[in-house]
Amino acid sequence: MRQYSPDLTPPWKKPKPVPEVPAEPGLVVEEPGSGFCGAVIRCEAGTVTLEDRFGKHRVFPMEPRGFLLEGRVVTLVRPSSGPARPTHTASGSVAVPGARARVARAGRIYVEGRHDAELVEKVWGDDLRIEGVVVEYLEGVDDLPSIVSDFAPGPDARLGVLVDHLVPGSKEWRIAESVTSEHALVVGHPYIDIWEAVKPTSLGFQTWPRVPRGQDWKTGVCRSLGWPENTGAAWQRILSGVRSYRDLEPELLGRVEELIDFVTS
After folding, report:
1. CA dist 145 to 58, 105, 152, 180, 185, Å?
2. Which Pfam families match (predicted)?
3. 164 and 53, same domain (yes or no)
4. Is residue 231 in some structural domain?
């Protein structure tokens, strides 16, 4: 007969249970032993394959308490059968499966150019559709005061504007200061162009090049990095390196979140 052996480990020495999280494709976790952080791309035979932002793959055993999810210890488990669903949006918000886009609000968010709009859509698109917020681009802010006046923002139609290179004393700063409606909010980031708001490490280099004054900044960046001097192709290369909010600088993240809160409050 098998003899029963009681567990005499004191309760305070027993490891606390941790959440079990399905290893769904797209889930971003960190393996603490190696520091490797990446998105799940496959799960099979007790292992999980992660892909980091540079496209590198690593395979790890799915051991108990083996991963970190947003800084918390978790145990990855095989996902149940059926279509995989992401747990979070690219902005870091909790995903809402099956959520339908809300009818567009009267309020809007304006950004300077097409690249700004594409980046905001890639990271915050899911959130904006749920909130019913439309993002439009202006092709510059030189005429911003008249644009705001024509929009006629009000309590039920708030206007948020994201401006590049919004630093004290700049032309953009003076233009933003001239917008005085309490129902319009103009904020910005300090970067010359929205390109620079993408973390360079997400694109495979350490710092954005310094471009001499008087030289077209985007062309100078392409030249310094050894890229073809095709700014459209360069932007697509940059945009493809953005997978989530983690690939963006905090100075941009905070401003976009501020605008979404303002328009939807």
Report:
1. 52, 22, 11, 9, 12
2. DUF3097_C, DUF3097_N
3. no
4. yes
